[in-house]
Amino acid sequence: MKMISGRVYKFGDDVNTDVIYPGKYLSITTDREEMAKHCFETVYPDFLKKAKPGDIIVAGKNFGCGSSREQAATCLKFFGISAVVADSFARIFFRNAINLGLPVIVAPGAARIAEHGDEIEIDLEDGFVKNCKTGKMVQSSRLPDFVMGILGDGGLISHLQKRIRGGKIRGG
Amino acid sequence: MTLAEKILARAAGRESVKPGEVVTAKIDIAMSHENADVVLRAFKEIGIGKVWDPDRIVILFDHRIPAESEKTAATHQRIRDFVKEQRIKHFYDLKEGICHQILPEHGHSRPGDVMVGTDSHTTTHGAYGTFATGIGATEMAGVWTTGELWFMVPETMKINVSGKFREHVSAKDLILSIIGRISASGADYRAVEFTGKTISNMSLASRMVLTNLSMEMGAKVALVAPDAKTIAYVKNHTRMEFEPQLPDSDAEYIEEMDFDVSSLPSMVACPHTVDNVKAVADIAGTRIDQALIGSCTNGRLEDLATASRILEGKKVSQDVRLLVIPASRRVYLEAMQKGYIEIFIRAGGLVLNPGCGPCLGAHQGLMAPGEVCISTTNRNFKGRMGSSESFIYLASPATVAASALTGVITAPDMPAP
Ligand code: SF4
To answer: pTM, whole model, 2 decimals?
Structure first.
């Protein structure tokens, strides 16, 4: 996985997990397609009408702050969001996203060069985010290799399955 | 090394570690509540069959108890079956209370250990000198599989607290004022170490208020170095061995902050962010519909004691619904023996079963558009407790109790209007 491109759906700072995935739907624990139907539902109902699979979320600082609910990352992934780019992330959301195979990219200033609806391009290996229309670019931090490994395997589950098959983890 | 670095180094089997390094640490305790359902699905998908160590996994129900829907009932059922199948030793069904209260009560929060929980407020256990942090469900399935987890060693900031609290002012007011000062992302990715005379004088319950709410400023872990009080409590609650760690005297901190509580007034976090903090006096008079005393932040015995002192012999405003939720069965029993429960009921309060209650907006005590709640919980996000058109103010048990009496936000040391 090297390049990701898509249309920008933009948010501000401190978008919390209650906003991304309302608490009243936490009883949905297994049906991921169902989770995807409630992304941002209470606070930004427009998202469900206007965002499209393949879109990239671009946000300010501290995206995903709040609870550890994995549904906040799952709902975006199964909605079809192809990546989330932000100035910074809250750490649990960040880890959840990686574990689910949803690319999360720390790129301070991305929200300044990309407007709602713009096409952007993310280069995971060379570490930049570029606005295809204006050509403006910001740097993004490269993820540690083994984190790229998890993402590359499509998330933690398939990553661990691979390690089990490779005899690196033995069953109890 | 700082306290966080010391614990991580030990868990990673290393002499020393530095901030920024990635280490793989052995996990001592892995806690999940209802979201164990999400974990076990991922665990089954991984396909290893048996969990790494059934004695180090703690599972309990607290978020939606008793089941508010058929879906949750089925969730509870799947988890109970899994617990039996895997012979998980430490399982607390819905009668015990909130995770962050019952873990210490049952001796699972131990100094020097690494704890992960599928709950963001797992930072709470840092009050016992535990490196404790929240993780997601899939990651927990990985822990159930391998017993290990990678951590980036965090930088540590030190918060030094001095001074004696004024009457009716407590740990909640302090941590709200800290969050107000440094913001909701002020401790992002960092470890926080609370030190100073005020902290050593605090009860473990009060220290837990600080470490619990540190999550709301982004902290990865929040710690208080274990002292005689900590060791005595833990020894009283478990026979398990533990190795307390202390920060080195030459530890390096990324930042040090000093707080003096001597003149700190009662504080409140206003809608809709935890860092929107003001003095209660500045917003006094705001009408409320609901007052909530409980949660993993402030549902412990000392909190109920404080509230009962204010409510004793008085009546809650007729326009206010006062909900009281003891954090655990043990807290409930003690509060009953001490007469607090009777005081709440006579004052017109409604006492709910131990658990998370309305805190997360899943069931019980939800709010209608336009309604206002003053609460001892830890999050006031828009829509957290029901309607996205409702408003949550976070405050201390004393402030919530005083406000329940008047029907408007009231500082506990202000004379009733
Ligand atoms: S009381 Fe609230 S914050 Fe605490 S664990 Fe329960 S839902 Fe989470």
So the answer is: 0.91
